Amino acid sequence: MTRRAAAVLLLLLMAAVGGLVLLNRPGGTSRRPRFRLFLRVTPAPAAAVTAAPGATPPPGETVRLTLFFPSADDARLRQEERDIPKPSGAGAFLRAIFKELQRGPTRAGLLGALPAKMQLRNAFLLPEGTAVLDLAMDASLSFGSDEELSIVAALVDSTLQNVAYTTHVRILVNGEPAETLGGHVDLTRPLAYLRSEVAAEAAPAAPAPPAVTPPPAGNR
């Protein structure tokens, strides 16, 4: 082998070694791109559970709600209990109560409390024990005094009955403080139980223990 060929071969070997060093050092091109790290925090799909043929799947954890609906006879509030899947978080629990009120009663002789065009924009708990319900109101809605009182009372009493550590309910309309829903019930202040205005069947002297203790306030 000539000296020139040996020099060329040595240069090639040095270049190969240098390339390997660059590829394997921290930050080298063989390392995975940084954005792939975010993929690792994505939860993996839950494994499917196959029940035996004919077997009943095990029920999930549930809570029992006590809801209030107006009676068809005298518009006074009556209680109805039902079990629902346990919500995760205070805001989810308040939305679940609203959803069940909107579904209406299952007991004969009771009427739905909430109109279909009334929706819940947001719901959360304040540290001082006030539950805030932000309603979305259709401009075409109008109420008589008895109907408006039944709506507000069903929302307030159902919330206070079921959510621990709440003392009042504040109702907003379309994200803003409102004087009233339809000109009959004062909404400028947080509301306590309205059983003295809309008497409930077998109303207890003191609030019954709430069905669920939600997580601390602030889960919006």
Topology diagram in text:
Elements: H1 3-24, E1 62-70, E2 77-85, H2 90-103, E3 118-125, E4 130-137, H3 145-162, E5 168-173, E6 176-177
Parallel strand pairs: 4-5
Antiparallel strand pairs: 1-2, 3-4, 5-6
Helix pairs in contact: 2-3
Describe this entry's structure for a reader.
- The protein has 3 helices and 6 strands, in the order αββαββαββ.
- The longest helix is centred in the first third of the chain and has 22 residues.
- The protein starts with a helix and ends in a 43-residue tail after the last strand.
- The strands form 2 sheets. The chain has a 4-stranded mixed β-sheet with strand order 3-4-5-6.
- About 17% of the residues have low confidence.
- The protein is of the alpha+beta class and 220 residues long.
Notable traits:
alpha+beta, 4-stranded mixed sheet, two-stranded antiparallel ribbon, 3 helices
> How large is the share of residues in beta strands?
15-25%
**Measured on Cα atoms, how large is the radius of gyration?**
31 Å
Extract low-pLDDT stretches: 28-57, 202-209
Query: What class would the helix/strand composition place it in?
Result: alpha+beta
The helix-strand sequence is: HEEHEEHEE
Number of helices: 3
- Give the N-to-C terminal Cα separation: 79 Å
Approximate shape = elongated
How many DSSP E strands? Answer: 6
Mean pLDDT: 76
Biggest pleated sheet: 4 strands, mixed
User: In order across it, which strands form the biggest sheet?
Assistant: 3-4-5-6
Helix content: 10-25%
